[in-house]
Design a protein that fits this description.
Layout (H helix, E strand, L loop, with lengths): L1 H16 L18 E3 L6 H7 L4 H7 L13 E3 L8 H15 L4 H7 L25 E4 L10 E4 L5 E2 L5 E7 L7 E6 L4 E11 L6 E2 L6 E3 L4 E8 L2 E3 L7
Antiparallel strand pairs: 1-2, 3-4, 4-11, 5-10, 6-7, 6-9, 7-8, 8-10, 8-11, 11-12
């Protein structure tokens, strides 16, 4: 009798342990394991590079892309930083896209093409930039990459006007990047970009040149601005650039 009871409990325990965890309780796979990105409507090469901590130049080279970096919805981009663009890899990516698009009409293909809103190469020298705080307020969250805080949070007044930290070209203006809300990304030089997140309203468009005095967005009810600067695709302490 005891043997039967023990066997029964063993079956029940094994049966329970073999059940997969509910999807909602499973951990999200590390971004390091993500090797490709499918272009979605509104994506630009700059927004994709920002999302995966790439420099635009590297992401373009890995995928064999050249200026003006025209992307199409459904296009597959490689996120392998160790790979060089090769004919074989590029042909494979194009093959995947061609098969996906071949099922649609020419009109559908035209509809799915993303607007190539990519800024021309910046000719501004970093030495000639005049840096300023994008909004008047107090820093309430510091830059701390060890805790995955890639930028700072500045607390201001609800509805405050946001200005560029320095002169540059708007390379992204939208809300397609998770956790950033309505976001503006500005290209200052070939290797320096800044980002302004959690806005209520965006007042600029992609491709637009902006100077220090231009209002690029307005903050929401919280009055908090997320501000980040990246150099060659890597987050740096934005406060080190401000006067």
């Amino acid at each position: 009798m005891q043997k039967c009871t023990l066997a029964l409990w063993t079956v029940l325990i094994l049966g329970c342990s073999s059940q997969p965890a509910p999807i909602v309780s499973r951990e999200q796979p590390p971004s390091a394991f993500i090797k490709t990105h499918m272009v979605e409507r509104g994506d630009t090469l700059y927004s994709i590079a920002w999302r995966y901590d790439f420099s635009v130049d590297l992401l373009a080279r890995v995928n064999g892309l050249r200026h003006p970096y025209i992307l199409k919805q459904g296009q597959i981009l490689s996120l392998d930083k160790t790979a060089n663009s090769s004919v074989k890899g590029l042909q494979k990516a194009k093959s995947i896209v061609s098969k996906a698009l071949s099922k649609n009409s020419d009109a559908a293909i035209s509809k799915n093409q993303t607007t190539p809103k990519v800024a021309p190469a910046a000719k501004i020298s970093a030495k000639n930039l005049r840096w300023q705080s994008p909004v008047k307020g107090q820093v309430v969250e510091d830059y701390n990459p060890k805790e995955l805080r890639k930028g700072v949070v500045i607390e201001a007044v609800s509805g405050s006007s946001v200005r560029p930290a320095a002169k540059g070209v708007v390379v992204y203006a939208g809300d397609g990047l998770r956790d950033y809300g309505k976001l503006v990304i500005i290209k200052h030089t070939e290797y320096l970009l800044s980002a302004y997140g959690h806005n209520q309203k965006i007042l600029v468009s992609e491709g637009q040149t902006v100077n220090n005095g231009k209002i690029i967005s307005e903050l929401g009810a919280s009055g908090r601005l997320y501000f980040e600067i990246r150099k060659d695709g890597n987050p740096v302490n934005p406060l080190s650039y401000l006067d």
